[in-house]
Design a protein that fits this description.
The chain contains eight helices and no strands. By secondary structure, the protein is an all-alpha fold.
């Protein structure tokens, strides 16, 4: 229990480091973009690189990313189906929860090929849905969070225009 208490105190201390609404909405938008990207294993690297580049709070961005990780599994199937439809490959069998067992039973190489094809469809779906929606999502979250976190700096100032210069 002491371990969980330390984690809770750390999260509380990171959250209450006088973030502006713009910073939190920027961190959340980056976390959403990175988390919903269909490939596993690159999220932490991408988020860390972006956070260092723009001098963001790295632990807080990674904490947001890990807390949003289940979102990846909820959006993969719809993004994959949308990507296949957009590419005009709707005759290609799509992943369904019932068909996963059949895909695995088809054989190792056939399964790997099918999963790779579905990943490429999901990337197309991600580019068409998540990336364009991230811009309005940023402003919506900024307005919602602005009621709880005081605005002390201008948003463009902290998020985009002042990259870290070493």
């Amino acid at each position: 229990m002491a371990f969980l208490q330390k984690i809770k105190e750390y999260i509380y201390s990171v959250y209450h480091q006088s973030f502006t609404s713009c910073e939190v909405s920027t961190y959340l938008t980056i976390a959403i973009l990175a988390t919903t990207f269909p490939f596993l294993g690159i999220t932490t690297l991408v988020v860390t690189a972006i956070a260092f580049r723009y001098n963001f709070n790295v632990p807080f961005v990674i904490l947001l990313t890990y807390s949003l990780e289940p979102l990846r599994f909820f959006v993969f199937l719809p993004l994959s189906n949308l990507g296949g439809y957009i590419l005009g490959l709707s005759n290609t069998p799509q992943i369904t929860l019932q068909g996963l067992g059949e895909i695995i039973d088809a054989g190792f190489l056939e399964s790997i090929g099918f999963i790779a094809e579905q990943l490429s469809f999901a990337v197309v779906g991600w580019l068409l849905v998540v990336v364009p929606l991230s811009y309005p999502f940023f402003f919506l979250v900024k307005k919602i969070i602005a009621y709880t976190i005081p605005k002390t700096k201008d948003c463009i100032d902290t998020a985009v225009a002042s990259p870290r210069i070493d």
